[in-house]
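Review form for a predicted model. The reviewer records the input and the model, then writes brief findings.
Reviewer: anonymous (R2)
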Amino acid sequence: MQAGLIGFLGLVIGLVVGIPPAGASDLNLSGKMTLFVAGREQAMFEKAAVKFEKQFPKVRVRFAETDGGKPLAVLAEGTADVAVLGRMLTPEEKEFTGTIVGWEGIAVMVNASNRVMDANLMQISDIFTGKAKTWDELGGLEAKITIINREEGKGVRPYFEQQLNLVGKFVNGKGVVEPDKEAVRIVSGSMNTVTYINLGTGLSNVNAGVPVRLLSVNKIEPEPANVSSGTYPLRRPIVLVTKGALSPSVKAFLDFMVGKEGQKTIQEEEFVPILVTK
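Model under review:
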């Protein structure tokens, strides 16, 4: 049922943005396209490109060198045909066209023994700026909050900062850790620690029995269905951005990403498809 809904939604979105659905004649499609992706989505798009090339064996997907380049600048220069952006386009960026292909949820993770179950956005902001100093301020035990921060400019940190207006306001905490598995290890072993993490990664650890818990936010559970619907507030879009007329290869790739196989790949890599049903 879920896969069918995702495939149907992909078809509808493809029609809305003017991307024709792939048909038998498209098996002879040939050409090449260049994709710019500099964020944590790279592995997911590399996997998607392999699947896409199997479906369209005469099309080649090349990944542009990042070298600190900015997605929209790369598109404007013509270095790439498609760029991945982790936010919505602004009204001032009207020369570009964005297609949402998925979401990333961001979760606040605590030890499973922590009595705090929920926090609103203001409370979460107070935790990571150091305004809230003990867990009893959020309904937990009278114990000092220990913050585990993430590396600046990497992972979900830039998006977490933007969501909560925390740029330049983070308290130092106990330290900065990467990758996700190290953050999970520390929080699972210390009752009073707290960090933030990709929601899919967090849920995978919870489901595997690791002693961590993801807080609900504004009484909304951190579940993929709530991320895709927008009721869970800590999320950011995965947007494929193009400029000008689309080549047949680029059209086919956009259609693939909003279709069944593309959405399946997004889910496999612990991101959230456009539509998830409970």
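Findings: Residues 46 and 63 are 8 Å apart (CA to CA).
Further findings: The longest helix spans residues 2-16.
Recommendation: see findings above.
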